[in-house]
Queue: 3 jobs
Job 1
Amino acid sequence: MSDIPPTSNKTDKRNGIEVDVRALRDLYRALDAHSESAAMAAIAELHPADAADVIEQLSSAQIRALARLIPVVFSGEILSELPDDVCETVVEELNARQIADAIGKLESDDALHLVEELDEGLRAEVLDEVTPKDRAAFENSLLFEEDSVGRLMQRELVALPLFYSAAQTIDSIRNAAADDIPESFYELYVVDPGFHPVGRVGLVALLRAQRNANLEEVMIPLQVTVSQNMDKEDAAYLFEKYDLPSAPVVDEAGRLVGMITVDDMVKVMHDEHTEDLLALAGVSEAGLGDTVWDVVQSRSPWLLVNLVTAIMASFVISLFDQTMERVIALAILMPIVASMGGNGATQGLTVVVRALAVRKITSANARRVIRREMLAGFVHGLIFAIIVGLITWVWFGSLTLAWVIFFAMIVNHFVAGLAGVLVPLGLKRLGADPAVASTVFVTTVTDVVGFFIFLGLAALVLV
């Protein structure tokens, strides 16, 4: 069915990469033999995250075969660890009852993530299989925008009134039903009679408090509450800024309806940073199970845009074809000007896009950032203009040609620094994602300006 990975030299270890390689090899063999027991044994002892890593290495056909062979292996914990494209492949092979059983063992936020990935028909079947309480919670959460906190929050939490003592609080947590409190949590919330959160109490502080001390005496006033309609990326920014382990989620009336925890925010930050990084290159993430056609479909549109911009640059070059025919050295040196400007612009662009993502650039400091990148571009241009000018003089023996490329390098680096900051800021101002479209515009600017300045000066001075 597939090539079997080579045996590790340290297969006696039962953790880390060695276990994954060994488990993957055993799983390949089990699938080839259609052995249910062998396939189960291959991943039975792995942590759900490690098992998900192993399953992700399989092809789409192998993943489908595994889901048909032993559907029971796809517990809620493993499904929640799988990438969305792999999870989608798996659930297509499971029935509604199997999916409902899997999500029934998860906390509400993880369960909702699986439910929202289902197509509408299968989702309706799965919701028919869960309890009425869970169904109502899922349907309510699905009403929120996809990237909102309302989709991300978990409804299990510990919230108690101001007058509860430390002893009463501990007893209340101990006696609560398992479905009513999170599997793990770091702090509980103190609420007023209207169920508005007013403070938080860390578990360490609770255990150290005197038994008769009221929560009002122990609590720390809330710094941050998160609206259920807030964008999850904005919530992640608050977690990073205030070093929060968790945060209460409130509705429009300020009543406590759920909470989000730092593990969810780490995933949000990772996903957002990955998305921005891929967008800068004009590509989407390719899963290990993606086909050649999937990759071609995702990347072709941006390559088409790059083709259009390349034609624009070529048109500028064609305006000076006679100049280039007379001075052949221009064709040799021309790529240096455009390439250096493009690289300089990309460096500034990457810094600015990252700063925008973490909200470090505001209207108060935008001018300072623009001025810094302009001056940095000018200084870079001056440094490399001297180097390239000297090389050109020695190489071609023409002081005039050296001066042409000297000035062209300075101008193009200055423009590159300016474009690297103004393009993403402008796109952000217009409501577009600067990570997605900036690279195309910046590259076009540096290519067109670089070719035009270099060949234009050459036409004026050399011909």
Job 2
Amino acid sequence: MDASRIVAWLVRCAEDPLTRWEGTFELLQSVQNMEWREQAAEERKARIARGEPVEVEPDESETPNDEGEGEESPRKNVDTSVFAKLIDANQKQTLANLLLDRPAPAADDKDAKIEELAGDNELIELVKRWGDPRLVGFLLDQLRANSGEPYAAGQTMKTIAEILNDEKIEEIADKYNEIAYEDDADSVDAESEGDDETAVEAPYAESEDVLANGEAEIVPEADASNTEPEKESVKPKKITYKELRDQLFSKFIESVEKAMAEKEKEFQAES
């Protein structure tokens, strides 16, 4: 069967909510297979350029192994990467619209969530590779809707960070995912409670920042007099994992919105 007709059929499968996963899964597998083959080819060229030995590439007509010489020989693996090369611009737009043209939840409805269908994760991975500028905004809406579900929020943060390729945003996403499974009420780094090394000097004023161990940072207040302030040992304030996640969540949203605004300015300046 013509490969282009198979691609068209897979896109039609993706358009139907009942078969969306089947269509998007096969298309994503094709794209990932193409990426793997391209990466393997580049690595092979690099090894040859360095004079290193390389394995002989098997002929496509050969079977994957020497087994199966009996009555039931294993069938040759089918190269589906050709599908990825045949997806045209209109088909990419159709697939992107399936994901991105859904209405966002009402701003005043805090309990509303974006409708999720089987195959959405595969669509996100496909659209991420095609660079649709609407994707980050869609994922931000999804992130806000999933704010009460740490694991889902963490995965969305990771995807947004990969798209934006911003070091600060990636760092916040990583820190959030590290504590996504922790119980809300547990204190951060409770094992170190009572450690004298965490003591600081008074007077104090709480900062909005959070230390690497999850404790609220406390910094000295400005002293108007020239006299040296009286010193005393005080332990930093402990916070819960939920409080730390909420802080990281807010910082992530703020950082992403700032990055998007900067990209929009750059786009307007170029146009």
Job 3
Amino acid sequence: MAERHAWYRKRRRRQLRLSVLLFLATLVTTTLVGSGFAPLALFPGLLDEQIADALVREHRLWFIENGRPLSFQEGYLKFLWQGFTYSGPLMLILLCHELGHFLQAVRYRVPATYPFFIPLPLPPFGTMGAVIAQGRGVADRRQMFDIAVTGPLAGLAVTLPVLYLGIRSSYIDVILPHGVQEFGEPLLIQWMIAWIHGPVADGQMLYMNGPAMAGWVGVFITALNLLPVGQLDGGHLTYTMLGKAAHWLAMGLIVAGLAAMYLTGSFSYVLMLLLVMMTGVRHPPTRDDTVPLGTTRHIIGWLTLSFLVIGFTPTPIILH
């Protein structure tokens, strides 16, 4: 028994180290994306003063702020801060979402890994989110519901104020004729923009700053996770509330999604659907599917799933 406990503690320490490393790696990739990769392009200047002077001459406009010329170090810190205004709020949103799942799993003594962040050093997001893995067939119906619902609710508790403050400090301007990347606006974001800035005229768009973009990603990831399919949060919720009928709902959604992409010619979610189908559309049974949820949990579950109506966008990225 003592050897087993020692093995378990060693395994948890390895998981924690990996979790911290992935968190730091994702913080780096999201900061780079949020800064337009400028710190990476300028990095050689930190190692050699002559290279720094050459970079300042080459990227002269980068080193001007409010009409004042900046030193290389000031310019570098400016871009780091620009990146962090996106990565900081986004990492907080993702962390709160995953900790919601993790802490509920700890509460119910359901085996679960620490949150694992997924770095992706590519625009537009710099990450593929974060996940935790939990023991299959350990949680009963009510425990599974609580673990599933707490993640998106905890994430939204941070996402909504970040989104509000970001949109409030962003600006609306005309859409440039070429090379502008616009992000689709679900109903929630449309309402918030209209509330803060008033109606947006045709040919104009909101140019999002770092916090606004982090809030947009928070809404996007929450809506994706609430799709009622397989091992997604929405799949857990619909299975605990509907039982095996949730399998038919999931398969119907997959068919409808594929048909919609074919008819519209927009394949934004094809990778998402393929990953879901590979991991399984059907939800496995809980330890005890007969445990009642009660009326309050049903209400909370359906209200949480209703976020899809205001948070999902069929066209996440629009190129002009």
